[in-house]
Amino acid sequence: MEMSTTEKRNTYEIAKERIKHGVEQLGLPLSVYERLKAPDRLVEAAIPLEMDDGSLQTFLAYRSQHNNVMGPYKGGIRFHPEVDRDEVAALSIWMTFKCAVVRVPFGGGKGAVACDPRKISKQELERLSRQYIRAMAPVLGPEKDIPAPDVNTNAQVMAWMADEYCQIKQYNDFGVITGKPLDMGGCVGRETATSRGVIHATIEAAKVMGVPLQGAAFAVQGYGNVGFYTAKFLVEQGAKLVAVTDSTGGVFNPKGLEPDALLEHKRQTGSVKDFSRCEAIKAKEIFAVDCDIIIPAALENQITREVAQIIKAKIIVEGANGPTTPEADEVLKEKKVLVVPDILANSGGVIVSYFEWVQNNYRYYWPEEEIEKRLQQKVVEAFAYLYDYQCNQCSNGVTMREAAFMYALQRLAEAMRVRGWIK
Ligand code: GLU
């Protein structure tokens, strides 16, 4: 099924709507909305890149710094051809709320370069990453704004970026960027952290919904870092991966798919499409699949009102940022589907980024078990207090997303009030 064009939503408008709604639900002063509705600062730069053939191209780059009342701005950098100013602004807002929800002492930021990384060489990618830092260095820093990986960026890109920053500063200051390789002050478990967090959230969601994970059928949209590791770890938990799609199409097999073999197929062919012994499905058909759990792990605005209507799963765990529109939320609430919101479900990434930053600042590194234990503790704890908030502390019928926004808003409002930013 195709997404109807009338339902395409501007992500930034959605983000503002969600804040306004939460402020109204809590009866907070409107000044809270005024302070949070726009990023504190959004830097836009045209970055020049010398291509391998000697020609010069410029790429639009952004860094949005939404709010830093809780700590330095924090959030990933994505490389994507369709990214724009509004999307980056919205994603930076989500980071502020994500950090507030899981009580990580950071504010919200996000960066992007409008480019298609599949169409540039490795050398071009390195130069582009370094140019991004040259353009943004004045507003970055371990106490100011700390980037990390996001869609189409990884530890290698972070290494080039962190190195460029250190070259500019003339000393090593690894805390400026998280998600770095281990040899450059990275943190064990950071690469899988977002998915580990998704798994902890899924386990908790399955418990409260009475869905046994053993044998539960699940579907994954997107097979990048989050999609792949989530699929792998959920299969390790005894669940059955029945469908996966990426932007070009996908595969379905009710008997179950093997995550590693599927990744190998994707590495060889560039897509999950045509994986052996599977039925072919179209990209959006992932949401119509008969399963217990759906993990959107791709981009924003995938679950619209009409997509929500065809969903059969009882649980949605948002590995992606902003995959569900407010209109879809209403339908899902009506259908009693539990949606574990992005700002909780995918918080594992920024939680372990926080651990990495702490270790960089102390120059003292923790063992993997410590990271895994603390990550699990944080996600499970946050799930528990949000679920309790949703069930017991709100007057009837708020969704877990509304509970998450309200919880974060209360913390942000209080922090802004004590600092005198609002009356
Ligand atoms: N890009 C990830 C996110 O959207 C991680 C951000 C970070 O670690 O700062 O949460």
Please characterize this protein's 3D structure.
By secondary structure, this protein is an alpha/beta fold. Among the domains are: 38-175, Rossmann fold (3-Layer(aba) Sandwich), CATH 3.40.50; 193-345, Rossmann fold, CATH 3.40.50. The chain contains 14 helices and 12 strands. It has helices at 11-26, 30-36, 85-101, 122-136, 155-169, 190-209, 225-236, 259-269, 305-310, 326-334, 342-345, 348-362, 368-393, 400-418; strands spanning 41-50, 56-67, 73-79, 108-113, 145-149, 217-221, 240-246, 249-252, 279-281, 293-296, 315-317, 338-340. Helix 1 packs parallel to helix 3 (85-101) and helix 6 (190-209) packs across helix 7. The relative contact order is 0.14. The model is unreliable at 1-6 (pLDDT under 50). The site of glutamic acid has 11 residues, from strand 3 and helix 12.
Q: What is the CATH fold-level name of the domain at 193-345?
A: Rossmann fold
- Which H/E pattern describes the elements? HHEEEHEHEHHEHEEHEEHEHEHHHH
Distance between the termini: 49 Å
Shape: globular
- Find the CATH superfamily of the domain at 193-345: NAD(P)-binding Rossmann-like Domain
Count of alpha and pi helical runs: 14
What is the highest CATH level, the class of the domain at 193-345?
A: Alpha Beta
Helix fraction bin: 40-55%
Mean pLDDT: 96
The name of the CATH architecture of the domain at 193-345 is 3-Layer(aba) Sandwich
Helix- and strand-based class?
Answer: alpha/beta
Q: How many strand elements?
A: 12
Q: If you compute it from the alpha carbons, what radius of gyration comes out, rounded to the nearest whole angstrom?
A: 21 Å
Largest sheet, spatial ordering of strands: 9-8-7-6-10-11-12
What small-molecule ligands were found?
glutamic acid
Name the beta content range. 15-25%
Q: Give a quick account of the main beta sheet: strands, pairing sense, barrel closure.
A: 7 strands, mixed
Runs in which pLDDT lies below 50 for 5 or more consecutive residues are 1-6
